[in-house]
Amino acid sequence: MSKEGGLAGVVVGETAVSTVGKSGVGLTYRGYAIEDLAAHAGFECCAHLLIHGELPSEDALAAYRGRLQGWGHPGGAVLAALEALPATAHPMDVMRTAASVAGATADPDEDPATAADRLTAAMPAALIYHHAFANGGVRLDLTTGADTLAERFLALQFRATGEAKPENWADMVRALDAALVLYAEHEFNASTFTARVVASTLSDFHSAMTAGICALRGPLHGGANEAAMELIASYATPDQAEEGILERLATKSLIMGFGHRVYKTSDPRSPVAQHWATQLAVDARQKNLLAVAERVDAVMAREKGLFPNLDFYSALLFHFCGIPTPMFTPLFVISRISGWAAHFIEQHNNNRLIRPTADYTGPEPRPIT
Ligand SMILES: CC(C)(COP(=O)(O)OP(=O)(O)OC[C@H]1O[C@@H](n2cnc3c(N)ncnc32)[C@H](O)[C@@H]1OP(=O)(O)O)[C@@H](O)C(=O)NCCC(=O)NCCS
Questions:
Q1: Looking at the chain, which terminus has fewer C-beta neighbours within 10 angstroms, N or C?
Q2: Residue nearest to atom 33 of ligand 1 (CA)
Q3: How close are the terminal C-alpha atoms of the chain, in Å?
């Protein structure tokens, strides 16, 4: 593949859902700056904006949160399928299976916006239910009184581990909520483009979501947050981190959580994730991990002129919320379903089959001998 490959810089369609890296505009969801959304709107506001087209009024938000809470149980068929998965299944296998089985049991006439709300609401419980069942044979009680998806996720996760809520619980909920806002949408990235290609064949909503999950899994896309956490945790001190990163760069290894296809100087989501990771670093171990991450950040800037993308500090944010590393990319899924859904709906509303062509590089025509 030539260096210019990967459709870099190629405009493949139009969207009214978001702008990424447009000069003077940055990242916006339907015209709202990501910085404003992260500071003033929670995840449910963003999901409503993306899936239903506008930010909800206060009353509509309360009703929307209530609906999502009501749909928080994935249903018997999904849970039965998850129980059949081996304990070794990666949580992304769990997400893909849950989305696929949810599709097999969904009402085919349901509008995609409602299907998106249902799937978003049910995925946290599906993920944590499988983890508790596979690791301890426990059929977790999935009812919580939590008002938001972020709090519901953390409440179920802490119930599954049996740990008491820490003192900074409120900060954890706010941090996770902000991370879900940051991950919700990002224009024509690989997984969204995948979902749009599936949508363009007039396939169904759950097929498009399942395909999006498959594309997101790779370490060059959603999987980067897990790889970034492993990298940060592999260094005991900032000095060791500096030495290790220099060694990796010398062998031309990729440092996960750095660089971006579209952003060239910074990722506007990273400072928000860094702010919350810093806020959550309360004990000495956490402060050391943060110091290691900051040194990696400084070395990458100095040596390569590269900046952290959303995945780098989000990895620490999730870790400080007590979330196991293999659940990081699934959290990305839970948030991004709203963005994929917005693109699915946009594609169906003005559809033309996405079917590009390729330059042929194979043998000249030849006879069968
Ligand atoms: C995101 C990413 C795939 C974008 O890739 P891209 O647009 O194809 O950019 P390129 O791979 O052409 O990178 C350009 C140069 O920067 C280097 N580079 C880019 N990201 C790098 C990273 N994370 N670590 C080390 N070097 C990196 C490349 O090696 C390349 O160097 P070269 O010109 O000497 O060959 C790439 O930056 C990457 O792999 N990052 C790590 C994975 C990651 O964090 N993904 C999440 C994205 S939100």
A1: C
A2: 3
A3: 31
Number of domains in the chain: 1
Q: Tell me, what amino acid is at 189? A: N
Ligand 1 center–CA 258 separation, angstroms: 7
Q: Which one is catalytic: 117, 177, 267, 311? A: 311
Ligand 1 atom having least distance to the Cα of 248: 25
In a domain, 298, yes or no: no
Residue 136's CB: how many other CB atoms inside 10 A?
13
What is the full per-residue pLDDT of the chain (369 aa) written as tens digits? 445 688 988 999 999 999 998 777 789 999 999 999 999 999 999 999 999 999 999 999 999 999 999 999 999 999 999 999 999 999 999 999 999 999 999 999 999 999 999 999 999 999 999 999 999 999 999 999 999 999 999 999 999 999 999 999 999 999 999 999 999 999 999 999 999 999 999 999 999 999 999 999 998 888 899 999 999 999 999 999 999 999 999 999 999 999 998 898 999 999 999 999 999 999 999 999 999 999 999 999 999 999 999 999 999 999 999 999 999 999 999 999 999 999 999 999 999 999 999 999 999 999 999
Whose C-alpha lies nearest to ligand 1, atom 20? 259
Which structural domain range is residue 345 located in? Answer: 18-223+320-349
**Domain containing 205 — which CATH number?**
1.10.580.10
User: Helices marked H in the chain — which ranges?
Assistant: 34-40, 43-52, 58-70, 76-84, 91-105, 112-136, 149-161, 169-183, 190-200, 205-216, 224-233, 238-250, 270-280, 284-304, 310-320, 328-349
Q: Whose CA is nearest to atom 2 of ligand 1?
A: 260
Asked whether residue 364 is assigned to any structural domain, the reply reads no
Report yes or no on 152 lying in a domain: yes
Ligand 1: centre distance to CA 3 (Å): 12
Q: If you measure from the C-alpha of residue 339 to the centroid of ligand 1, how many angstroms do you get, rounded to a whole number?
A: 24
What is the CB < 6 Å shell around ligand 1?
6, 8, 220, 224, 254-261, 304, 306, 309-311
Cβ-contact 320, 335 below 8 angstroms: no
